[in-house]
Fold this protein.
Amino acid sequence: MGCQMNEYDSNRILDLAKKINYFPTKKIEEANCYVLNTCHIREKATEKVYHEVGRVKKQFRDKKKPIVLIVGCVAQAEGDILLKSEKYIDAVIGPQNYHSINNIIKRIDEKDRENNLTEFDVIKKFDELNLVKNSNTKASSYLTIQEGCDKFCKFCVVPYTRGPEYSRSIKEIILEARQLVKNGSKEIILLGQNVNAYKYKNNHLSDLLYKLNDIEGLERIRFTTSHPKDYTKDLIEAHKKCKKLMPLLHLPVQSGSSEILKKMNRGHCINEYTDLIEALKESNSSIKFSSDFIIAYPGETDKDFEKTIELVKKIKFINTYSFIFSARPGTPAASLDIVDVKIAKKRLSLFQHITNEIKKNYRKKLVNTFCNVLFENKTKNNDNSFFGRDEYFNSVIVKSKINLTGQIKKVKISRNNQNTLFGELIDYKKREEFAA
Ligand code: SAM
Ligand code: SF4
Ligand code: F3S
């Protein structure tokens, strides 16, 4: 469940568990150990955990119970409650403690339980992870470079579930990146809750980008998620100079109203955000943007909401992720008066209608244009279709009799729907015609 960081963590948990002879299975009924990696960002997070555990319980009714571990952000935030209310759970492990998973499995096997591991032990975690090879063999791989958050936006649980900001060393990141490239990765997506707050000794994110840019065999670099407040000049410049850096930037803004940004404690106003967008476009004219929005934050008036609409029309984000404000236990915004639910739903629906139209228009214009696609896998359709992503992270499907996985190919887009572009491979002759 949750964000890309959880996906990275889940893969690393698998890498660790292999050391004690636990291997992944697709058949849940065969599992000796069940690990649920959880997210606490919006409502019903804890209910989802109980629901999943209930499903496992049912499945194993007549069989030997597997070890059940709840890891991730719900484990961190609500570990004690989970353990008290659901005896089927053997242990809860926070995001900074999963390096201990093998010891915990062993102890549970030996019936010696220590079942709440939710300390912030991020240095030890990465020390241990560095000793275990990242076995990910995907064409596009995640690599966590930064953890935690010191920003304390009033609505957000992350500073409480992931702890303070921490950056991994350049050396260990480069080592892991080289390993991934050796495994076959062509693209690396650097991850961090505030990835552009990355700072190791005197090195910033831009320094790391240039070093990664020099890795032979690595073709593409992306990073997410950036905070507008941490966007520095050197990083803006890297969008021009770092040739392997892809031209899509996910830059969450949350609201188009400076008053709401202030109430959220985002640390910047809307003019600073639009100035940053202009500076990035100046640095690299092909750059495009995606963003996150919270609709109906406590105190959001019709006027504030209109400003958000104005902003999306102005920037024309090619992708947006939008959610109605969700009061999260323990955050300062949880005690504020919420916007009437009907009004909130109406605003979300209008917002999504407008942003979908923007996306539709953008995608319509892509038909009959060319892009470069990194193919990640064959689709499940069994019709020789391959799935990949273009420079802007758009999903592209192409038919091919030869295996395209792991290759970057020039594609002509022939049609599209809301979420996918469909295209055909361009052979060299046609490429020359196109170039002419
Ligand atoms: N660090 C990133 C940033 O500052 O933009 C975002 C990290 S958060 C995991 C991803 C997104 O979840 C946020 O950008 C925000 O839009 C959304 N989100 C976080 N807390 C929320 C809440 N209480 N209600 C609704 N959406 C929320
Ligand atoms: Fe949450 Fe704000 Fe930190 Fe992003 S910057 S993780 S929204 S507290
Ligand atoms: Fe969710 Fe934790 Fe990520 S709350 S969004 S899994 S950092």
Remarks:
- The chain has a mean pLDDT of 94.
- The radius of gyration is 23 Å.
- Residues 133-246 form a domain with the Transcription Regulator spoIIAA fold (CATH 3.30.750.210).
- DSSP finds 14 helices and 19 strands in the chain.
